[in-house]
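During the reporting period the student researcher (J.K.) took over the structure-prediction task from the postdoctoral fellow and processed the backlog of single-chain submissions. One of the processed entries is reproduced below for the supervisory committee.
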Amino acid sequence: MFRWLPCVVIFGLTADYSSADISVGSSSGGAPLPRVVVPTSGRSMAPVRPVSPAKRILYPWKTHIRTTVFWIGEKPTQNNPTPNHMSSWDQKWAKNYGGYDDPNPSNRIANHTTGEFRPKRFVPRLNPFYIALPYNDVLDHRRHKPEASRVIPWFKSMRPEPGESVCKGRWVQIYRNNRSCYAQWEDCGPWRTDDWQYVFGSNKQPRTKQNGGAGIDISPSVRDYLGMKSGEKVHWRFVEAGQVPYGPWKKYGRTPVARGQSGDDIEVQRRYLEYLRQLRDEEFNKRSVRDIQSR
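J.K. obtained the following C-alpha coordinates:
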Protein backbone atom coordinates (compact mmCIF):
# COMPACT_ATOMS: atom_id res chain seq x y z
CA MET A 1 0.00 0.00 0.00
CA PHE A 2 1.32 3.41 -0.79
CA ARG A 3 1.85 6.39 1.50
CA TRP A 4 1.92 10.12 0.88
CA LEU A 5 4.35 11.82 3.19
CA PRO A 6 3.97 15.27 4.77
CA CYS A 7 6.01 18.13 3.39
CA VAL A 8 8.20 20.30 5.61
CA VAL A 9 8.16 23.99 4.69
CA ILE A 10 11.36 25.83 5.54
CA PHE A 11 12.12 29.48 5.11
CA GLY A 12 15.30 30.67 3.47
CA LEU A 13 16.66 32.83 0.69
CA THR A 14 16.55 32.98 -3.10
CA ALA A 15 16.54 30.11 -5.61
CA ASP A 16 17.38 29.59 -9.27
CA TYR A 17 14.69 27.64 -11.09
CA SER A 18 16.91 26.51 -13.96
CA SER A 19 19.74 24.85 -12.06
CA ALA A 20 18.95 24.74 -8.36
CA ASP A 21 21.41 23.43 -5.77
CA ILE A 22 21.48 19.73 -6.62
CA SER A 23 23.57 17.07 -4.95
CA VAL A 24 23.76 13.39 -5.73
CA GLY A 25 21.29 11.09 -4.02
CA SER A 26 20.71 7.46 -4.79
CA SER A 27 18.12 5.29 -6.47
CA SER A 28 17.65 1.66 -7.33
CA GLY A 29 19.46 2.15 -10.61
CA GLY A 30 22.32 4.20 -9.19
CA ALA A 31 21.45 7.33 -11.17
CA PRO A 32 21.46 10.65 -9.31
CA LEU A 33 18.25 11.93 -7.81
CA PRO A 34 17.55 15.59 -7.09
CA ARG A 35 18.32 16.63 -3.54
CA VAL A 36 16.04 19.63 -3.75
CA VAL A 37 12.47 20.62 -4.17
CA VAL A 38 12.10 24.13 -5.49
CA PRO A 39 8.97 25.49 -3.86
CA THR A 40 7.39 28.92 -4.40
CA SER A 41 4.78 30.72 -6.26
CA GLY A 42 2.38 29.82 -8.92
CA ARG A 43 -1.03 30.07 -10.37
CA SER A 44 -2.66 26.72 -10.92
CA MET A 45 -4.31 25.86 -14.21
CA ALA A 46 -6.31 23.17 -12.43
CA PRO A 47 -10.05 23.38 -13.02
CA VAL A 48 -10.98 22.97 -9.37
CA ARG A 49 -9.99 24.45 -6.02
CA PRO A 50 -6.29 24.14 -5.04
CA VAL A 51 -5.11 22.36 -1.92
CA SER A 52 -4.66 24.55 1.13
CA PRO A 53 -0.97 25.49 1.68
CA ALA A 54 -1.25 24.05 5.19
CA LYS A 55 -1.95 20.63 3.66
CA ARG A 56 0.95 20.50 1.20
CA ILE A 57 2.59 17.12 0.97
CA LEU A 58 5.71 15.74 -0.60
CA TYR A 59 4.88 13.20 -3.27
CA PRO A 60 7.20 10.27 -4.04
CA TRP A 61 9.41 10.15 -7.11
CA LYS A 62 8.77 7.85 -10.03
CA THR A 63 12.30 7.04 -11.12
CA HIS A 64 13.87 5.96 -14.42
CA ILE A 65 10.67 6.43 -16.42
CA ARG A 66 10.92 6.24 -20.19
CA THR A 67 9.50 9.23 -22.04
CA THR A 68 7.91 9.84 -25.39
CA VAL A 69 7.48 13.26 -26.96
CA PHE A 70 3.99 14.27 -28.06
CA TRP A 71 2.53 17.58 -29.15
CA ILE A 72 -0.73 19.43 -29.63
CA GLY A 73 -1.99 18.87 -33.15
CA GLU A 74 -0.05 15.63 -33.66
CA LYS A 75 -1.59 13.35 -36.29
CA PRO A 76 -2.13 9.62 -35.64
CA THR A 77 0.83 7.33 -36.27
CA GLN A 78 1.65 3.70 -35.55
CA ASN A 79 3.33 4.69 -32.28
CA ASN A 80 0.61 7.19 -31.40
CA PRO A 81 -2.78 6.08 -32.74
CA THR A 82 -4.69 8.94 -31.09
CA PRO A 83 -4.73 12.40 -32.75
CA ASN A 84 -3.83 15.26 -30.46
CA HIS A 85 -5.96 18.11 -31.77
CA MET A 86 -8.11 17.38 -28.72
CA SER A 87 -7.15 16.02 -25.31
CA SER A 88 -8.97 13.77 -22.87
CA TRP A 89 -10.30 16.88 -21.14
CA ASP A 90 -10.36 19.57 -23.84
CA GLN A 91 -12.27 18.98 -27.06
CA LYS A 92 -10.71 22.13 -28.59
CA TRP A 93 -7.20 21.70 -27.28
CA ALA A 94 -5.36 22.81 -30.43
CA LYS A 95 -7.67 25.77 -30.95
CA ASN A 96 -7.42 26.88 -27.33
CA TYR A 97 -3.65 26.51 -27.47
CA GLY A 98 -3.47 28.71 -30.51
CA GLY A 99 -2.32 26.28 -33.18
CA TYR A 100 -0.01 23.42 -34.04
CA ASP A 101 2.77 22.93 -31.49
CA ASP A 102 5.37 22.06 -34.11
CA PRO A 103 7.99 19.73 -32.57
CA ASN A 104 10.63 20.40 -35.25
CA PRO A 105 13.54 22.10 -33.42
CA SER A 106 14.14 24.40 -36.40
CA ASN A 107 10.60 25.72 -35.97
CA ARG A 108 10.89 26.37 -32.26
CA ILE A 109 12.42 28.88 -29.86
CA ALA A 110 14.49 27.26 -27.11
CA ASN A 111 16.47 29.81 -25.14
CA HIS A 112 17.52 29.38 -21.50
CA THR A 113 18.67 33.00 -21.29
CA THR A 114 15.33 34.53 -22.24
CA GLY A 115 13.21 31.66 -20.93
CA GLU A 116 11.47 31.28 -24.30
CA PHE A 117 10.44 27.71 -25.13
CA ARG A 118 7.65 27.70 -27.69
CA PRO A 119 6.81 27.43 -31.39
CA LYS A 120 8.11 30.28 -33.56
CA ARG A 121 4.92 30.82 -35.52
CA PHE A 122 2.70 32.01 -32.67
CA VAL A 123 2.56 32.80 -28.96
CA PRO A 124 0.66 30.00 -27.21
CA ARG A 125 -2.44 30.83 -25.21
CA LEU A 126 -1.89 27.82 -22.95
CA ASN A 127 1.17 26.58 -21.11
CA PRO A 128 3.58 24.95 -23.63
CA PHE A 129 5.03 22.86 -20.79
CA TYR A 130 2.53 20.01 -20.66
CA ILE A 131 2.61 16.25 -20.13
CA ALA A 132 0.38 13.19 -20.31
CA LEU A 133 0.14 10.37 -17.77
CA PRO A 134 -1.66 7.04 -18.26
CA TYR A 135 -4.74 7.74 -16.16
CA ASN A 136 -8.05 9.56 -16.61
CA ASP A 137 -10.11 10.24 -13.50
CA VAL A 138 -13.43 10.75 -15.31
CA LEU A 139 -15.65 8.44 -17.35
CA ASP A 140 -17.55 11.32 -18.92
CA HIS A 141 -18.63 14.84 -18.00
CA ARG A 142 -21.04 13.47 -15.40
CA ARG A 143 -19.08 10.72 -13.64
CA HIS A 144 -15.72 10.00 -12.08
CA LYS A 145 -14.18 6.56 -12.22
CA PRO A 146 -15.17 4.44 -9.21
CA GLU A 147 -11.65 4.33 -7.76
CA ALA A 148 -10.82 8.01 -8.36
CA SER A 149 -11.84 9.32 -4.93
CA ARG A 150 -9.90 6.51 -3.26
CA VAL A 151 -6.61 6.53 -5.18
CA ILE A 152 -6.07 10.23 -6.02
CA PRO A 153 -4.51 11.76 -2.90
CA TRP A 154 -5.90 15.28 -3.43
CA PHE A 155 -9.36 14.25 -4.65
CA LYS A 156 -11.33 14.84 -1.45
CA SER A 157 -9.70 18.17 -0.69
CA MET A 158 -10.64 19.44 -4.17
CA ARG A 159 -14.34 18.54 -3.76
CA PRO A 160 -15.02 18.37 -7.50
CA GLU A 161 -18.41 18.35 -9.15
CA PRO A 162 -19.43 15.01 -10.72
CA GLY A 163 -17.34 14.44 -13.85
CA GLU A 164 -15.01 17.37 -13.10
CA SER A 165 -11.37 16.33 -13.47
CA VAL A 166 -8.98 16.83 -10.56
CA CYS A 167 -6.04 15.70 -12.73
CA LYS A 168 -6.20 18.29 -15.52
CA GLY A 169 -3.68 21.06 -14.90
CA ARG A 170 -1.92 19.27 -12.06
CA TRP A 171 1.74 20.26 -11.75
CA VAL A 172 4.63 17.80 -11.98
CA GLN A 173 8.36 18.21 -11.46
CA ILE A 174 10.54 16.41 -14.03
CA TYR A 175 14.21 15.84 -13.31
CA ARG A 176 17.06 14.89 -15.62
CA ASN A 177 20.80 15.57 -15.63
CA ASN A 178 20.83 17.94 -12.65
CA ARG A 179 17.99 20.08 -14.01
CA SER A 180 14.37 20.30 -12.92
CA CYS A 181 11.51 21.28 -15.20
CA TYR A 182 7.87 21.87 -14.29
CA ALA A 183 4.86 21.06 -16.44
CA GLN A 184 1.11 20.54 -16.21
CA TRP A 185 -0.85 17.36 -16.74
CA GLU A 186 -3.07 18.08 -19.75
CA ASP A 187 -3.76 14.72 -21.44
CA CYS A 188 -3.86 10.97 -20.82
CA GLY A 189 -1.36 8.40 -22.04
CA PRO A 190 0.90 7.01 -23.29
CA TRP A 191 -1.33 4.15 -24.47
CA ARG A 192 -3.38 3.61 -21.31
CA THR A 193 -5.82 5.69 -19.26
CA ASP A 194 -6.36 3.28 -16.35
CA ASP A 195 -2.94 2.77 -14.76
CA TRP A 196 -3.61 4.37 -11.38
CA GLN A 197 -1.34 1.83 -9.66
CA TYR A 198 1.63 3.44 -11.40
CA VAL A 199 0.49 7.08 -11.45
CA PHE A 200 -0.64 7.23 -7.81
CA GLY A 201 0.29 3.89 -6.29
CA SER A 202 3.31 1.81 -5.43
CA ASN A 203 4.04 0.41 -8.91
CA LYS A 204 7.44 1.74 -9.93
CA GLN A 205 6.90 1.28 -13.67
CA PRO A 206 3.84 1.59 -15.93
CA ARG A 207 1.89 -1.43 -17.13
CA THR A 208 2.23 -0.64 -20.83
CA LYS A 209 4.95 -2.35 -22.85
CA GLN A 210 4.60 -0.17 -25.95
CA ASN A 211 7.33 2.31 -26.84
CA GLY A 212 9.75 0.60 -24.48
CA GLY A 213 7.35 0.82 -21.55
CA ALA A 214 6.95 4.59 -21.72
CA GLY A 215 5.30 6.09 -18.64
CA ILE A 216 5.08 9.80 -19.43
CA ASP A 217 4.53 11.90 -22.56
CA ILE A 218 6.35 15.23 -22.60
CA SER A 219 5.79 18.29 -24.79
CA PRO A 220 8.44 19.73 -27.13
CA SER A 221 9.07 22.56 -24.65
CA VAL A 222 9.82 20.10 -21.85
CA ARG A 223 12.08 18.16 -24.22
CA ASP A 224 13.97 21.28 -25.25
CA TYR A 225 14.32 22.64 -21.72
CA LEU A 226 15.81 19.38 -20.47
CA GLY A 227 17.88 18.85 -23.60
CA MET A 228 16.67 15.34 -24.26
CA LYS A 229 15.22 13.05 -26.90
CA SER A 230 12.13 10.89 -27.04
CA GLY A 231 12.82 7.50 -25.44
CA GLU A 232 15.19 8.77 -22.77
CA LYS A 233 14.43 8.39 -19.06
CA VAL A 234 13.52 10.89 -16.36
CA HIS A 235 12.41 11.04 -12.76
CA TRP A 236 9.08 12.75 -12.09
CA ARG A 237 6.66 13.49 -9.27
CA PHE A 238 3.62 15.59 -8.47
CA VAL A 239 4.09 18.96 -6.78
CA GLU A 240 1.67 21.46 -5.34
CA ALA A 241 1.12 24.69 -7.26
CA GLY A 242 2.72 26.65 -4.44
CA GLN A 243 5.96 24.68 -4.86
CA VAL A 244 6.39 25.65 -8.51
CA PRO A 245 8.89 28.49 -9.04
CA TYR A 246 8.53 31.14 -11.68
CA GLY A 247 10.07 30.00 -14.94
CA PRO A 248 9.36 29.37 -18.64
CA TRP A 249 6.42 27.16 -17.62
CA LYS A 250 4.62 30.25 -16.28
CA LYS A 251 5.23 32.66 -19.14
CA TYR A 252 2.19 31.65 -21.15
CA GLY A 253 -1.37 30.72 -20.34
CA ARG A 254 -4.56 32.40 -19.32
CA THR A 255 -4.51 34.48 -16.12
CA PRO A 256 -7.97 35.44 -14.86
CA VAL A 257 -8.19 38.91 -13.31
CA ALA A 258 -10.16 39.17 -10.08
CA ARG A 259 -13.26 41.33 -10.20
CA GLY A 260 -12.58 44.92 -9.11
CA GLN A 261 -8.82 44.73 -9.76
CA SER A 262 -6.91 46.24 -12.66
CA GLY A 263 -4.13 44.50 -14.51
CA ASP A 264 -1.57 46.95 -13.05
CA ASP A 265 -2.67 46.16 -9.50
CA ILE A 266 -2.41 42.44 -10.16
CA GLU A 267 1.11 42.81 -11.61
CA VAL A 268 2.35 44.82 -8.62
CA GLN A 269 0.95 42.24 -6.23
CA ARG A 270 2.40 39.39 -8.27
CA ARG A 271 5.92 40.87 -8.19
CA TYR A 272 5.76 41.53 -4.47
CA LEU A 273 4.48 38.04 -3.69
CA GLU A 274 7.14 36.56 -5.94
CA TYR A 275 9.79 38.46 -3.99
CA LEU A 276 8.44 37.20 -0.67
CA ARG A 277 8.25 33.65 -1.90
CA GLN A 278 11.79 33.72 -3.21
CA LEU A 279 13.02 34.65 0.26
CA ARG A 280 12.11 31.21 1.60
CA ASP A 281 13.77 29.08 -1.08
CA GLU A 282 17.48 28.65 -0.53
CA GLU A 283 17.60 26.67 2.70
CA PHE A 284 14.72 24.51 1.54
CA ASN A 285 16.52 23.82 -1.72
CA LYS A 286 19.57 22.51 0.15
CA ARG A 287 17.62 19.77 1.87
CA SER A 288 17.55 16.40 0.23
CA VAL A 289 14.38 14.62 -0.75
CA ARG A 290 15.54 11.69 1.35
CA ASP A 291 16.08 13.80 4.45
CA ILE A 292 12.60 15.36 4.17
CA GLN A 293 10.88 12.01 3.59
CA SER A 294 12.61 10.44 6.59
CA ARG A 295 10.95 12.90 8.99
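The committee noted the following: Residues 263-278 form the longest helix (16 residues).
J.K. will present the remaining backlog at the next meeting.
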